[in-house]
Amino acid sequence: MTTTPTSAGPATSLGLQTPVDLGRRARPGESVVRGVLLAAALVSIATTVGIIIALLRPALDFFREVPIGEFLGTTRWAPNSHDPAYGVWPLVSATFVITAVALALAVPLGLGTAMYLSEYASKKTRARLKPVVELLAGIPSVVYGFFALAFVTPTLLQDLLGMDVGFTNALAAGLVLGVMVIPTIASLSEDALSAVPLALRQGSLAMGANRLQTTLRVVFPAALSGIAAAVVLGLSRAVGETMIVTLAAGSQPNLSLDPREGMQAMTGYIATTAGGENPVGSTSYNTLFAVGLMLFVITLVINVISIAFVRRFRQEY
Amino acid sequence: MSAAYATAARETVTLSAGRSRDKDLRSLVFLGALWFSLLFGILVLLVLILTTAVKGAPRFDMALLTDYSSQLFPERTGFRAGILGSVWVMLATAALAVPLGIAAALHLEEFADGQKWWNRFIEVNLQNLAAVPSIVYGLLAVAFVELVGIRERGLVISGAIALALLILPVIIITTREAVRAVPREIREGSLALGATQWQTTWRQTLPAAVPGIATGTILGLSRAIGEAAPLLMIGTATAIRFDPNGLMSQFTALPLQIYSSTSQSQEALQVAASAAIIVLLVMILALNGLAIYIRNKFQRTW
Questions:
Q1: Strand runs (DSSP E) across A154-296, as ranges?
Q2: For residues B3 and A313, what is the distance between their CA atoms, to the nearest angstrom?
């Protein structure tokens, strides 16, 4: 440990230009500290491994009793009824209906916010407005859930828009979830737009384009992979969000694509069931982890796609 | 290209060259759409705060803060246990997550060899952890607490473990940014005077990065204090009528009490939930304000 850090190691990570070998002399204290710091960094790996084990063990117990074919192949979800059925699709479809509503709202608004902040706002305006937009991300999700139940459904959807929706419905949950996701998409897209080299804008303006054309036809395509990463990360946020969908989307599994109906999402099922009194180790308790594992795998795939997009966008400039 | 130069130059370009050609209808419609998308979020924020405050107004009294929750008299229910529980969990979360997060960030930023595959793996892993749903951290904490043999559900320590793991990526990422912003001349100077790498990190780099680290940590904690889902997972009760008095004590948290009041139909509980939301928002805004104050007051530009 004490002799390994040579010129290739710490010297470059500190940004020194000439390789200076400062680690040649044995320093026992120094290596203890290094070990402690490395251990702290490895906690993040342990967390991932822990999540996988924590979800996989009860989930495997579950799949021993309920064949995975029934879980993924049937469409009735009623784990607590006398005639239990474990087809997970109603939960998955609800999650994606709500997420689709959320992204339909958050993608255009988030992108518009990002374009304004990056291409139109003065430095001062940007410095003032960005924290306000990011404040939207700081509002707790339980507060958004309350807002959906207490304002969006009764006042906005039922009274103002005259829609025939129930007390809980996927539309209100999706809209509020969309508002919550706006800052994620706006902030990351703004980073991507700002990273586009100035020369591209100058070139476009020099050819006689106005700012609308420059923004949409030059800057936006150049930042596309970063923007895609932002949207995909927003998608991941929306899929994993719990309290809004638990409160506002409903608690009935419902295999419907109509957002005006109430439906139970994956996270909603986990949250509602965990609060109940299912004995530890029972099949109905283990459903929590089976659904949790499915949720983790879905968000993992989405996150990996997002990270891949970020990689590509970094390589371009 | 340095960021400052880029912004200054972009300023000049966008303010002079483009503007004269932005007068046609399509440009104005587009600008209007951008304005709308920016104002939409701010408008929702205002409507949310105003409608909640109006609904909760009848309950802005001391009983809201000093009394325990009551099923019998919902019009007099209070959130004392939740407020104290949230503060306890937040302090325990900070005690777990802050040292761990700073240590991990120092490893990655100052000591790790970025060429090695395991360090790159840690980085990708962190990016992924930052986007894992909070409810999954709750399931992890359930399994961990069972593993170490704690049978009781809903303890302060279980909640703190779930929330600490949840905000660890946030703390690591912001600490790394703060450490990276310290110019390398400071490190070179220290190394040139014969300090070891750890002495340099501990006595020069870290102190210089403290304002940035504090800002990031407080923002992470303000996220933790509003989380309800992981606490729901670890079996946190909502109708608790005593103050938490230690790490092994049962507790309830303000967001959870809001959740349970909201999911009941009594009007008085809805009003109390609205008032409690304002209390929670004030706590979060205070934390955010503190973070911004520290950033503006102590942040050095090199």
A1: none
A2: 18
What are the residue boundaries of the structural domains of chain B, listed by start?
A: 63-298
Give the residue among A285, A286, A290, A291 at the shortest CA–CA distance from A268. Answer: A291
List chain B residues with CB under 8 Å of A289.
Answer: 139
> Hey, are the CB atoms on A307 and B128 less than 8 Å from each other?
yes
Q: Report pLDDT digits (tens) over B208-226.
A: 999 889 988 998 999 899 9
Identify the CA nearest to B174 among candidates B218, B208, B137, B133.
B218
Beta bridge partners of A86: A77
Taking the Cβ of residue A228 and every Cβ of chain B, the question of whether any pair is shorter than 8 Å is answered with no
Q: Does B195 reach chain A within 8 Å, measured CB to CB?
A: no
Q: Residue A156, SS3?
A: helix
pTM to 2 decimal places:
0.87
Check CB contact of A84 with chain B, cutoff 8 Å: no
Assess B151–A contact: CB distance below 8 Å, yes or no.
no
Give the mutation candidate from A34, A37, A179, A288 for the B interface (greatest B CB count, under 10 A).
A37
d(Cα A181, Cα A7) in Å, to the nearest integer?
Answer: 44
How do residues A28-55 score in pLDDT, each as one tens digit? 888 899 899 999 999 999 999 999 999 9
Whether residue A120 contacts residue B31, with contact meaning beta carbons closer than 8 Å, is answered with yes
Residues of A in contact with B100 (CB under 8 A): 40, 43
Contacts of B277 in chain A (CB under 8 A): 143, 146
Range list of H helices, chain B: 3-12, 25-56, 62-66, 80-106, 117-129, 134-147, 156-180, 184-192, 197-200, 206-226, 229-233, 254-262, 267-298
Separation CA B93–CA B163 (nearest Å): 6
Tell me the C-alpha distance between B158 and B142, whole Å: 8
Q: Which of B100, B139, B277 has its CB closest to that of A146?
A: B277
Q: Does A274 touch chain B (CB under 8 A)?
A: yes
ipTM above 0.85, yes or no: yes
CATH architecture of the domain covering A85-313 = Orthogonal Bundle (1.10)
Which CATH superfamily is B63-298 part of? MetI-like (1.10.3720.10)
Q: Are A23 and A3 in contact (CB under 8 A)?
A: yes
> Which pair of tokens denotes residue A219?
């800057």
Candidates B240, B231, B233; CA nearest to A269 is B233
What is the radius of gyration, based on Cα positions, of chain B? Answer: 24
Chosen from B30, B38, B119, B262 to mutate, greatest number of chain A CBs within 10 A: B38
The domain locations on chain A are 85-313
Q: Does A199 touch chain B (CB under 8 A)?
A: no
List the structure tokens of B95.
């005690």
User: What does the alpha-carbon distance between residue B286 and residue B22 come to, in Å, rounded to a whole number?
Assistant: 41
Q: What is the pLDDT along chain B (302 residues), one digit of tens a residue?
A: 455 565 665 555 555 555 566 778 888 899 999 999 999 989 999 999 999 999 988 888 887 788 888 777 777 788 888 899 999 999 999 999 999 999 999 999 998 887 888 888 888 899 889 889 999 999 999 888 888 888 788 889 999 999 999 999 999 999 999 999 999 999 999 999 988 889 999 999 999 999 889 988 998 999 899 999 999 888 887 777 788 888 888 888 999 999 988 888 788 888 989 999 999 999 999 998 898 888 888 877 76
